[in-house]
């Protein structure tokens, strides 16, 4: 049996086994080397799985040779192969950045713990995406969440402890709701295998336990997704966590939660149960619009750039959920594409903000004034990514919003077309806050004139900025992956 046969298992096993090794070696350099090798290996495996799925179709991998649905199954299709590439890709780029970044943000004696938690978070998020078992979704969710709480709390800023504790409380509530929902589905279907559950659930569709499971899963996953108004944990977690952690979370955590919502809604419950028998389209539409306008409006008034872009993330999550609410191939394509494009864009932004904070002495707009002259390339990168958030042609964000507008036009909802464009104007307003501070104000006199961004931080950030532009010009990978995935999800009635 070839190594390629075991790629689904290796996708999770590699970072999961590398995590305890970083604890054993304890030395910062060795721990970084192990984490770097594991993250890049995870990316290589994800790309191989994506290629394999594109050519051969769905991959089913039985853990311990127990055939599904009796045993645990890792199941890879076009949707989660796409998500695996996003998660592993963001981690592989963020990790080299983190080595210099955490020097000023994490105590030196805790650096090896940072890499341990980073790898556990990576293993958890990859596991969520690849598993075909409903209970394993919960298990991997807890692995990712627990490691994330520690990653946030590792920051020197004492406010990070409060942010981590708040996230822990909210995350625990969300996880409890999810496991209750999974338990109810198991009670009614007698299986934990997601594909098998989707086949069996038709016989009990519409019963009270199944409806209760849908409600529990919706609320639990929405807490993890930070869907407005269940987003209260996110702004402080993003603002006070180390910059590398913020970039990792913004690029992967909420995106994997969106994947879980899609998987349960369309692969398990089915369109008819979620969108036809219940007013879920209307509910998701209202919540999406509330996030798009409410969170974006709050972002305009933030004084800290990390908090500003944190609220921007909540608004962008609204676009992801808006695509779901259309319940159409083009709407789902927009959701899946934006899941990827926003992950790349926002990870790039937080890497850039972290580099700016290192040189300028903080991430508040007051500290960043005159940054356009002091750090021209970093400032230009922030502007490029800001244009992507707005949805300017030639950037990744435009592709997502274009498909959202197409989905609205298909439904004849011209009001939604107007609202999508109008919400983008709010993005113009909060991106302009940065432009004004960076380019139209004099640099502060107390900034170290010789401080520079280390190459290990500048190169990863530049790669993601380039990716933000590239995926706005070439959609063969993003739309080419998302459209078949959306069609497959919509194939189930």
Name the descriptors.
mainly alpha; 493 residues; globular
Low-pLDDT segments: none
Number of helix segments? 20
This entry's quaternary arrangement is single chain
* Percent range for β-strand residues: under 5%
Helix content: over 70%
Main sheet specs? 2 strands, antiparallel
Note the run of SSEs as H and E. HHEEHHHHHHHHHHHHHHHHHH
Radius of gyration: 21 Å
How far apart lie the N and C ends?
A: 37 Å
Based on helices, strands and strand pairing, what is the structural class?
mainly alpha
- Mass-distribution shape: globular
Q: Tally of extended strands?
A: 2
Question: If strands are numbered along the chain, what order do they take across the biggest sheet?
Answer: 1-2
Domains counted in the coordinates: how many? 2
Please describe what this structure looks like.
The protein is mainly α and 493 residues long. It has two domains: 1-278, no CATH class; 279-493, no CATH class. It has helices spanning 7-25, 28-56, 78-101, 111-130, 134-153, 159-189, 194-200, 208-225, 234-240, 243-269, 271-276, 280-300, 305-326, 329-360, 371-374, 376-390, 396-410, 414-439, 455-473, 478-490, and strands at 59-62, 73-76. Strands 1-2 form a two-stranded antiparallel ribbon. Helix 10 runs antiparallel to helix 14 and helix 12 packs antiparallel against helix 13. It is globular, with a radius of gyration of 21 Å.
């Amino acid at each position: 049996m070839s190594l390629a046969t075991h790629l689904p298992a290796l996708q999770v096993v590699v970072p999961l086994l590398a995590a305890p090794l970083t604890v054993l070696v304890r030395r910062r350099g060795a721990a970084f080397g192990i984490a770097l090798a594991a993250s890049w290996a995870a990316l290589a495996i994800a790309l191989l799985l994506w290629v394999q799925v594109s050519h051969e179709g769905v991959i089913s991998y039985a853990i311990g040779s127990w055939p599904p649905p009796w045993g645990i199954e890792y199941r890879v299709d076009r949707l989660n192969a796409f998500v695996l590439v996003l998660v592993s890709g963001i981690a592989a780029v963020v990790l080299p950045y983190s080595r210099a970044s955490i020097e000023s943000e994490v105590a030196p004696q805790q650096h090896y713990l940072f890499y341990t938690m980073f790898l556990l978070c990576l293993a958890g998020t990859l596991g969520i995406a690849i598993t075909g078992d409903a209970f394993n979704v919960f298990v991997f969710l807890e692995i990712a969440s627990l490691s994330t709480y520690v990653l946030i709390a590792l920051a020197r800023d004492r406010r990070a402890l409060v942010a981590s504790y708040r996230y822990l409380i909210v995350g625990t509530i969300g996880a409890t709701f999810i496991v209750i929902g999974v338990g109810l589905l198991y009670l009614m279907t007698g299986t934990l295998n997601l594909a098998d559950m989707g086949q069996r659930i038709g016989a009990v569709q519409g019963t009270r336990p199944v409806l209760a499971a849908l409600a529990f899963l919706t609320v639990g996953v929405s807490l993890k997704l930070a869907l407005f108004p269940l987003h209260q944990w996110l702004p402080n977690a993003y603002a006070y966590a180390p910059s590398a952690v913020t970039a990792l979370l913004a690029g992967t955590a909420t995106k994997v939660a969106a994947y879980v919502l899609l998987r349960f809604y369309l692969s398990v419950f089915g369109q008819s149960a979620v969108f036809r028998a219940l007013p879920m389209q209307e509910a998701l539409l209202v919540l999406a619009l509330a996030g798009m306008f409410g969170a974006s409006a709050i972002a305009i008034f933030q004084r800290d750039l990390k908090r500003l872009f944190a609220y921007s993330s909540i608004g962008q999550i609204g676009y992801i959920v808006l695509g779901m609410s259309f319940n159409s191939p083009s709407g789902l394509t927009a959701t899946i594409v934006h899941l990827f494009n926003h992950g790349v864009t926002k990870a790039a932004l937080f890497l850039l903000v972290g580099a700016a904070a290192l040189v300028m002495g903080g991430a508040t707009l007051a500290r960043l004034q005159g940054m356009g002259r002091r750090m021209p390339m970093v400032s230009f990168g922030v502007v490029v990514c800001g244009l992507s958030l707005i949805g300017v042609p030639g950037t990744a964000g435009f592709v997502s919003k274009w498909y959202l507008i197409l989905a609205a036009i298909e439904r004849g909802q011209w009001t939604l077309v107007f609202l999508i464009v109008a919400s983008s104007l709010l993005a113009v307003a909060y991106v302009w806050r940065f432009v004004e501070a960076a380019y139209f104000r004099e640099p502060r006199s107390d900034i170290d004139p010789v401080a520079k961004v280390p190459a290990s931080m500048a190169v990863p950030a530049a790669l993601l900025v380039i990716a933000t532009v590239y995926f706005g010009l070439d959609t063969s990978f993003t739309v080419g992956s998302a459209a078949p995935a959306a069609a497959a999800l919509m194939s189930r009635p």
